Amino acid sequence: MTDTALHATTETDRAPRARFWHQLSFWGLLPSWLLMGFALILPITIIAAVSVATRGAHGGFVWDFNLASYTQILFNEDWTRELEFTPQYLLIIARTFLLAGTTTLICLLFAVPVAYFISRQRPSRKAALVYLVTLPFWVSMILRVYAWMIILGKEGTLPRLLDAIGFPAGMSFMFNDGATLTAMVYTAMPLMVLPVFASIEKLDSTLIEASHDLYGNRWVTLRRVILPLTAPGIIAGAILVFVPALGAVLEPSLMGGGKQMMMGTLIQLQFGGARNWPFGSAIAMALMTVVMIVLIVTALRATRKEAMQ
Q1: Domains detected in the chain
Q2: In which element (H, E) is residue 51 found?
Q3: Which pLDDT tens digit goes with each residue over 9-34?
Q4: Which candidate, 19, 105, 183, 185, has a CA 20 to 30 Å from the CA of 5?
């Protein structure tokens, strides 16, 4: 048999096998596609549809396509039914992004030294420290937030300690942006430490030694060696912290007392007491759009950087 005939026979034998594996991969992934469709795509589609509906007379919604809910984010109707600009929701959006960004930055400032310290320990101690970092995940978030309410409340641990050393009695650190930020940083810190730790652990220690041999101090080594080489873990941690912080509900509700609203509490209010489902859906879609833009820009930058390398 010639080489051409042998090659044709081999290709003929491979074709049914390739079709079999293609069909197997399709039907094997079908349950996951169905799960994603019912758990992710379908709810988003419903929210998008409700966002362009009309609010019912007694709550709920009526299927009537309009963009009034999106317009309400920026404008409000006066008594003559003319639109006038209102900044109240823009202030809530700005506060949300400010607190989420500050939470991400503070978590990053603490996570890098903590992750570096853990990565330089012996294996047994390293495993114990990683376990301690993940330990808060074993406790309900509500209990973790209530613990901070006990610490910062008027009769809490911190005010009593300050009272004992001479500060004015009856101080309370609750129901403000500082208390909300404290709880958000606490709940999000493990989400930043773990990705950064995974990146630093893979870092070649000889590169750090080479930096010191070239008379680079600790700041130069951190800025020129550690941070650039661990950028993927830092970006992953920032996304894991920033995105959930945008939709935070428990922290501003319990620690902030509902006085300084964020987008998560605003959405909850629209679906709850206000019974304005279309407006709540419009805010949720706007928040999701911003998150998607942030994720797409981050992915494009990472892809471009990898292509340049």
Answers
A1: 91-308 (1.10.3720.10)
A2: helix 42-51
A3: 454 555 566 665 666 666 667 788 88
A4: 19
